[in-house]
């Protein structure tokens, strides 16, 4: 609940080797979303960052342009 759209990318992590970086477009009124997401992830998953963004980059076909995720904030 509270997530309109989301995407994930892998980033380097000093201890785990690799971690998730999440990009979330929240629904209106969503509260404490980053904290709730971190609690919901399995304990063995390392989450480097939870980024709340206004929109996700899309390709001409309307799919998420994952290669552009790290350019948004």
Order of helices and strands: EEHE
Q: What is the helix fraction of residues, given as a range?
A: 10-25%
Which structural class matches the secondary elements? mainly beta
Q: Kindly report the spatial arrangement of strands forming the biggest sheet.
A: 1-2-3
Main beta-sheet annotation: 3 strands, mixed
Q: What is the strand tally?
A: 3
Please count the helical segments.
1
Beta-strand proportion: 35-45%
Characteristic terms for this protein:
mainly beta; 73 residues; flat
Description:
- The structure is a single chain.
- By secondary structure, the chain is mostly beta strands.
- The chain has one helix spanning 33-40; strands spanning 3-13, 17-26, 47-52.
- The chain has a 3-stranded mixed β-sheet with strand order 1-2-3, with helices on one face.
- A hairpin with a 3-residue loop joins strand 1 (3-13) and strand 2 (17-26).
- The chain starts with a strand and ends in a 21-residue tail after the last strand.
- The mean pLDDT is 88.
Short description:
This protein is mostly beta strands.
Topology:
Layout: E1 3-13, E2 17-26, H1 33-40, E3 47-52
Parallel strand pairs: 2-3
Antiparallel strand pairs: 1-2
């Amino acid at each position: 609940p509270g997530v309109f759209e989301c995407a994930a990318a892998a980033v380097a992590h000093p201890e785990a080797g690799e971690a998730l970086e999440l990009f979330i477009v929240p629904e209106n009124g969503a509260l404490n979303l980053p904290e709730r997401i971190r609690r919901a992830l399995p304990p063995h998953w390392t989450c480097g960052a939870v980024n709340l963004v206004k929109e996700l980059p899309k390709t001409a076909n309307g799919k998420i342009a994952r290669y552009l995720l790290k350019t948004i904030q």
